[in-house]
Amino acid sequence: MKKKILILLLFILSLTSFAVPLNNMDKDGNVTLPNIELVDQYGKKHNLQDYKGKVIMLNFWVSWCSDCKAEMPKVVELYKEYGENKKDLIILGVATPISKKYPNNKDRIDKTALLKYIKDNGYIFPSLFDETGRTYAEYEVVEYPSTYIIDRNGYLKVYVKGAVSKEELKKYIESVLNPIQK
């Protein structure tokens, strides 16, 4: 009996610590995430629906986060290595600047300062601006950086809380780009 209770508690704990909207899980265990329609630092609008058939890596970050600062150059390197979103992998950052209208957003600087920060640091991959904070809330982002890798069918395959090495990110990307067939 104690063993069954322990297993049940571990299962519940694993669900609560997995800060991803699991209410979007189908009967086969595939998780779909909310669509994103946001504009990047270049003024280009991105809609995740437009990237069906491609693998998408979303990297949620904030400017004040030391782990984000350490990871971002690696994301830039991967962006270049994988063809700058012109091939099978789409790499997108997501940032949430504060504003008078949305003072509770996660970053501590406004959009103008964030644009300068992105340019000054050479973050050339598209970073989408979640100006309302809605996307961060829908994706239940609570740790920075948070990375989501979505497969060609739109299903979440990898979720990483916190910073990881370039090699780990590449391993996760490759596992979704080139899955082992069963």
TrEMBL record:
<dbReference type="Pfam" id="PF00578">
    <property type="entry name" value="AhpC-TSA"/>
</dbReference>
<dbReference type="InterPro" id="IPR050553">
    <property type="entry name" value="Thioredoxin_ResA/DsbE_sf"/>
</dbReference>
<dbReference type="InterPro" id="IPR000866">
    <property type="entry name" value="AhpC/TSA"/>
</dbReference>
<dbReference type="InterPro" id="IPR036249">
    <property type="entry name" value="Thioredoxin-like_sf"/>
</dbReference>
<keyword id="KW-0732">Signal</keyword>
<feature type="domain" description="Thioredoxin">
    <location>
        <begin position="27"/>
        <end position="178"/>
    </location>
</feature>
<dbReference type="InterPro" id="IPR013766">
    <property type="entry name" value="Thioredoxin_domain"/>
</dbReference>
<feature type="signal peptide">
    <location>
        <begin position="1"/>
        <end position="19"/>
    </location>
</feature>
<protein>
    <submittedName>
        <fullName>TlpA family protein disulfide reductase</fullName>
    </submittedName>
</protein>
